[in-house]
Write a structure and sequence with these properties.
The structure holds three protein chains of three kinds.
Chain A (H helix, E strand, L loop, with lengths): L10 E2 L9 H30 L3 H9 L2 H34 L5 H13 L2 H12 L6 H6 L8 H11 L3 H13 L2 H8 L4 H30 L2 H7 L9 H10 L3 H31 L1
Helix pairs in contact in A: 1-13, 2-13, 3-7, 3-8, 3-10, 5-7, 5-11, 7-11, 8-10, 9-10, 10-13, 12-13
Chain B lengths: L2 E10 L2 E11 L4 E5 L6 H9 L6 E6 L2 E2 L10 E4 L11 H10 L5 H14 L15 H13 L5 E5 L7 H18 L2 E6 L2 H7 L2 E6 L2 E6 L1 H6 L4 H6 L4 E8 L2 E4 L2 E4 L8 E6 L4 E4 L7 E10 L3 E9 L2 E8 H7 L6 E6 L3 E4 L2
Parallel strand pairs in B: 3-8, 3-9, 6-7, 7-8
Antiparallel strand pairs in B: 1-2, 1-4, 4-5, 9-10, 11-12, 11-14, 12-13, 14-20, 15-19, 16-17, 16-19, 17-18
Chain C lengths: L1 H9 L2 E2 L8 E2 L2 H12 L9 H27 L4 H8 L2 H34 E2 L3 H7 L2 H4 L2 H12 L6 H4 L10 H11 L1 H14 L2 H9 L4 H30 L2 H7 L9 H10 L3 H34 L5
Helix pairs in contact in C: 3-16, 4-16, 5-10, 5-11, 5-13, 8-10, 8-14, 10-14, 11-13, 12-13, 13-16, 15-16
The chains are: A mainly alpha, B alpha+beta, C mainly alpha.
């Protein structure tokens, strides 16, 4: 957005009858900016300040340790698995819910949102109860020497759980708003069901899907509570980046902790920028 | 390419939208399904296209039963009310879509799409996106897209419903011409009688899921088969009465009702332009007082009070009113030149 | 013969409304029966069975079965055992702390969120777009990162801690620190629920109030605040729900002293580390039930807000 003049003083966007006096506007805006600075910006700056506390060289040295690299690798792996799984689920759920009328639809929508309202720790706990040594499938998994809890599969499935609704909740309202007409048009023109999906539906939902994926990715890479329960914190094997931050911090290796944290901070910033870009792109259309 | 619809029934969750409809459309005909909204006319069209599965009945195209044939294989061109253009594709890709999914090679497909673009008069707009087009242009693209796979049957569902009046008029004469040039069999659904009269060879008036009348436009207007058709197509004066001695009497007027039994409750309908008004007493003329005059452009509307509380509406050419000196309060003599008598429901 | 028997056995019978007619239960029949119940209307759009089938399968596998495990596991505990595990003194202190701190954080955000939303909607100033984007930071920043940053900031030798320390106010490693962390992570909720409602608010009402002689303060309290109230409470409830379950940012700043600064989710982890699965399950069930109750509350609040926003005649 290009503005003609930059307003140093906050101007009202509303007619003067229904806006406050100039001084009130100034006070309110500075209060709001103060809140945003102390609550949001200061912690973010602390992350980068902490990382570069002892200079750039120390930063690079403490960032590229073998443990950190394996944590980065694991985090990328976890995201790379949960994204496609939940995207496929999101599309499938949105297709069923937006294109058809069936009994229990509203209930299904609330079930899909369920993982968002569960505490991360409880999310981790349920998988310990399912796959852990005292869990339902524990003895079976033990007998066949399959490790899920305190191993990578547990981290993956927990992450899939906590990021479950992201794509679906973006796509359901989007596809409901778009209706069925374009798909019907495609069918009358001779396209098969799959052709209709790939040539008509998918291109129409791509921005919504991307939006969901951006949020999903941020959560998948940054999830701490749920993953912490199932990981076992084995350095170099089952620590994701947020867990590595915790380990380094608890070892009083603050530079190390903040250097890994700075990567996650960058991820957060990139997420916010991409999100804003997609919002801008879809709104301008 | 002829279509035969036999005993078509379609119900949605207990509501019967189409209630036992049968009709035939011959090759090359332009037929219109005319009816108020919610009459089930769009559902009939969607059943023929294969977009809805009929609850009962059968649909034949070219003598072949297509009731069970999936929509992809029916090879009909369908134009949607809101056009349903693919918003992510350019104009040319929209038109070429039907060819693409049938595996036509890129070069040939674009050639044919460009030809169609010329046919609908939109040369040079191939790279535009649907959002950059006006309503009328979108309509033309939708038509070109429907025609691209060379269907022999074109189905139009309220195709001008989303456009303004002037554009509608322009597009429907163009559509009529296109229908002859491409040699299509066309089935149009509309609630707009002017549109139906202008373009169709034959009109099916649909109400509450049933066909009220199936006839050429002139017959629909001049010889409405039912009270609904008479009332729906054009304005009417309406009188209730009882059949006595083969006639329904109203004041000085006697309406012939030989087709109805003695003593039947009957409804008489006659059009405002079938009302003849003079300022001289003529034989059979019934005196009344002009209560209001309304200028309608080419015609003028007279509200004539025959007896207290009983009015007749007449349309007369604008010039005639002035020449005859029709003014408010003047006594005039009224005759009805044509009327339709139906059994009262 | 055996095959015929098998085929016969396959066709088990379902009860039918007419007792002397038995409906054979073939797969096809089950399918059509299923369709009749679930599919209100047949559509030409393909893929209903595939998409709904996959959706239900995946939903059950990832969400429903695991969550059900919590209740299955809790049935292995007897009533008194469950009660004991879920109401130990250490846990009671944690409940108090978790609810209190979440309530505190949600309340802070109630006011701060309203202020930020107001400024973002009503005024124009340099950097507004950036502020608007930054509001979502707590959603994007991993909680562990927020946790260590806030701890460093509010530790006695930290940038902010140094300001509070001389005043005798302990921020990090005290309940106040927990409130701070929860305020951070639940910050966007009130802003994001109030913002669109404030945006869509008809200024006609305010102009009418002004015409009748109401000043801005009166207009705010009598006209604007009542209109925003459903959104504000929804945002408050969302922030509260999020804060209640939060773990990552709190463990660093809390200090985790038993009876004093232990939150409920931390106790689940502590129990698990002690291999007390049953104890962890009991706490998990309590938390899950709380989440469900909050979910119902939030759904109700959202319904209320929608009703008020979409039905101007009822306002």
């Amino acid at each position: 957005m290009i503005r003609k003049n930059f307003n140093i003083f906050p101007t009202s966007l509303y007619p003067s009858v229904v806006s406050e006096r100039k001084e009130i506007r100034l006070i309110l805006t500075f209060l709001a900016l103060g809140i945003v600075f102390f609550v949001l910006i200061l912690p973010l700056l602390t992350v980068f300040a902490g990382a570069f506390n002892e200079g750039f060289v120390r930063y690079i040295q403490s960032l590229f340790t073998p443990e950190n690299l394996s944590a980065i690798r694991l985090t990328l792996t976890v995201a790379a698995i949960s994204i496609p799984l939940n995207v496929i689920f999101g599309i499938s759920a949105a297709w069923a819910i937006a294109k058809f009328e069936f009994f229990g639809k509203r209930f299904l929508i609330s079930l899909i949102d369920l993982p968002f309202s569960v505490s991360p720790v409880v999310s981790g706990l349920v998988f310990v109860l399912l796959f852990g040594s005292q869990g339902l499938l524990g003895s079976f998994l033990n007998a066949h020497d399959i490790k899920i809890i305190f191993a990578v599969p547990g981290i993956v499935i927990t992450t899939v759980f906590v990021t479950f609704p992201f794509v679906a909740r973006e796509l359901i309202p989007l596809m409901q708003a778009q209706g069925n007409e374009e798909e019907e048009a495609s069918l009358t023109l001779g396209a098969s069901g799959w052709q209709t999906f790939f040539l008509v539906t998918l291109p129409n939902i791509r921005w919504g899907m991307l939006y969901g994926v951006i949020l999903l990715n941020a959560r998948a890479m940054g999830e701490f509570g749920a993953v912490s329960v199932v990981s076992g914190h084995i350095q170099g094997l089952t620590t994701t980046m947020p867990l590595q931050v915790e380990i380094l911090y608890n070892e009083y290796n603050f530079i190390g902790a903040f250097s890994v944290a700075s990567l996650l901070g960058l991820l957060a910033l990139a997420t916010l920028v991409l999100k804003a870009l997609v919002e801008w792109k879809t709104h301008s259309k | 390419m002829s279509i035969r619809v036999e005993n078509l029934v379609k119900s949605f969750n207990g509501f019967t939208a189409v209630d036992n409809i049968s009709f035939l459309v011959e090759k090359g005909e332009f037929v219109t399904l005319l009816g108020p909204s919610g009459s089930g006319k769009s559902t009939v069209l969607r059943c023929i296209a294969g977009l809805e599965t009929p609850t009962a009945g059968r649909i034949e195209v070219k003598g072949e039963d297509v009731t069970e044939v999936p929509v992809q294989n029916r090879k009909v061109g369908f134009v949607f009310q809101h056009f349903a253009l693919f918003r992510h594709l350019s104009v040319i890709d929209n038109i070429a879509f039907g060819l693409k999914v049938r595996g036509v090679k890129t070069g040939e497909r674009l050639d044919r799409a460009r030809k169609l673009l010329g046919l609908v008069g939109l040369e040079g707009l191939d790279k535009r996106m649907p959002s950059q087009l006006s309503g009328g242009q979108r309509q033309r693209v939708a038509l070109a897209r429907a025609l691209a796979p060379e269907p022999e049957l074109l189905l139009l569902d309220e195709p001008f419903g989303a456009l303004d009046t002037r554009l509608r008029k322009e597009l429907r004469s163009w559509l009529k011409e296109l229908h002859h040039r491409v040699q299509l069999t066309t089935l149009l659904v509309t609630h707009d009688q002017d549109e139906a009269f202008e373009v169709s060879d034959r009109i099916l008036v649909v109400n509450k899921g049933r066909i009220e009348q199936n006839a050429p436009p002139q017959d629909i207007f001049n010889f409405p088969a039912t009270e609904f058709v008479a009332a729906f197509v054009g304005e009417t004066n309406r009188i209730d009465g009882v059949v006595t001695a083969g006639e329904v009497a109203w004041g000085h007027f006697r309406f012939k009702a030989v087709h109805l039994q003695e003593g039947t409750q009957a409804t008489v309908l006659f059009r405002p332009n079938d009302v003849y008004v003079t300022s001289y007493k003529e034989r059979g003329g019934w005196p009344g007082t002009i209560r209001s005059l309304q200028y309608l452009g080419a015609t003028e509307l007279l509200d004539i009070e025959m007896e207290p509380g009983q009015h007749v509406i007449a349309h007369i050419p604008t010039g005639v009113a002035g020449l005859s000196g029709f003014t408010k309060g003047k006594t005039v003599y009224v005759m009805v030149t044509a009327a339709h008598v139906f059994e009262k429901k | 013969m055996a095959e015929r028997l098998k085929a016969h056995a396959w066709k088990a019978c379902v009860p039918s409304p007419v007792p002397w007619v038995r409906i054979p239960l073939s797969p096809r029949r089950i399918f059509s029966y299923f369709m009749k119940i679930f599919w209100k209307q047949k559509s030409v759009i393909p893929g209903f069975g595939l998409s709904l089938g996959f959706t239900l399968f995946y939903l059950s596998l990832i969400v429903l079965i695991p969550l059900a495990m919590l209740f299955v596991k809790s049935t292995t505990l007897t009533g008194p055992e469950f009660l004991e595990a879920a109401t130990s003194p250490r846990l009671m202190a944690a409940y108090k702390l978790s609810f209190g701190a979440s309530l505190g954080a949600a309340s802070i955000n109630f006011f701060c969120g309203l202020l930020v939303a107001w400024v973002l909607v009503r005024y124009d100033f340099w950097g507004k777009r950036i502020v608007d984007i930054l509001v979502d930071l707590p959603f994007a920043l991993p909680t562990a990162v927020a946790g260590i940053a806030l701890t460093t900031l509010y530790a006695p030798d930290g940038l902010m801690g140094r300001l509070f320390d001389p005043l005798g106010i302990k921020t990090a490693f005290s309940p106040l620190g927990i409130v701070l962390a929860l305020t951070f992570i639940s910050f966007p909720f009130v802003v994001r629920t109030v913002q669109p409602v404030l945006q869509d608010l008809d200024i006609d009402m305010e102009e009418a109030a002004a015409c009748m002689g109401a000043g801005r303060i009166k207009t705010f309290f009598y006209i604007i605040l009542p209109a925003l109230f459903p959104a504000l409470t929804t945002g408050f409830a969302l922030a509260f729900a999020r804060a209640l379950g939060e773990y990552g940012s709190v463990v660093f700043i809390a200090g985790n002293m038993p009876m004093r600064t232990e939150i409920v989710p931390l106790l689940i982890i502590t129990k698990l580390e002690q291999y007390d699965t049953a104890g962890a399950t009991a706490i998990g069930v309590v938390m899950l039930v709380c989440s469900f109750l909050l979910l119902f509350l939030i759904n109700g609040l959202q319904g209320w807000g929608e009703k008020r926003n979409h039905d101007p005649e009822k306002l």
